[in-house]
Amino acid sequence: MNATMLLLHLLGATVWTGGHLVLAVTILPRVLKGKDVAALHWFEQGYERIGMPALLVQVVTGLWLAWQKLPSLALWFSAEGGPVAQLIQAKLALLGLTALVAAHARFRVIPRLSPATLPLMGWHILAVTGLSVLFVVAGLSFRVRWGL
Ligand code: HEM
After folding, report:
1. Residue 143 Cα: closest atom of ligand 1
2. CA-CA distance, 99 to 109, in Å (whole number)?
3. Ligand 1 atom 26 nearest Cα
4. Whose CA is nearest to atom 19 of ligand 1?
5. What is the pLDDT of residue 147?
6. CB of 93 within 8 A of CB of 56?
7. Is the full-model pTM beyond 0.85?
8. How far does the centroid of ligand 1 lie from the alpha carbon of residue 118, in Å?
9. Is there an atom of ligand 1 within 6 Å of 81 CB?
10. Quick one: 54 exposed, middle or buried, by C-beta within 10 A (0-12, 13-18, 19+)?
11. How much is the pLDDT for 141?
12. Is the CB–ligand 1 distance for residue 61 below 6 Å?
């Protein structure tokens, strides 16, 4: 069960983080250069179908994996939980930030998307992409000690 959950978590991570890196590094520069609002809509609509389920999978499997590591909600938010609790808190903080930026983009920026507001949309994409990479770094930190 643990292995299956971890597999689903990693598949979700490849879709979420990988999709955002493709968007930020290859699609966004072209969209900004050509002021091509339609191309961004086209990518977003296609990606949403796999990206949103992937994020949902991340949250469900992530909470499950966190519970296996530390089976107490109180410990998740206390200093006694140690480094594992800190990493769980980091993941939840990243999730909160991602939800804020994504909701702002979805409900405020995308409905009024125009060549003039494309750079603002670009900042939102870069923010969610940066957060998605930090999710991977935090996830890996459960196993890996970063050092020189
Ligand atoms: C888009 C969001 C997320 C991404 C991209 C992501 C990515 C990752 C990655 C790459 C790992 C490393 C797995 C390994 O070392 O084998 C990981 C581990 C982990 N993640 Fe996430 N994660 C996300 C969301 C979450 C959430 C919301 C939680 C809930 C607290 C969470 C909890 C965990 C836990 C507990 C582990 C350790 C699993 C283990 O080593 O057994 N993740 N994550």
Report:
1. 15
2. 14
3. 62
4. 139
5. 83
6. no
7. yes
8. 31
9. no
10. buried
11. 97
12. no
Segments making up each domain of the chain, as ranges: 2-144
Mean pLDDT by 10 residues, the chain (148 residues): 96 98 97 94 92 97 98 96 97 98 93 94 98 98 89
Token output for 37: 């609002």
**DSSP secondary structure letter of residue 71:** -
Ligand 1 proximity of 131 Cβ (cutoff 6 Å) = no
Ligand 1 pocket check for 23: Cβ under 6 Å = no
Cβ neighbours, 10 Å, residue 75: 16
CB 5 within 8 Å of CB 61: yes
Calculate the CA dihedral of residues 111, 115, 120, 123 and round it to 10 degrees: 110
Nearest-5° angle of CA 81, CA 83, CA 87?
A: 100
Contacts of 47 (CB under 8 A, 6+ apart): 19, 23
Cβ of residue 13 lying under 6 Å from some atom of ligand 1:
yes
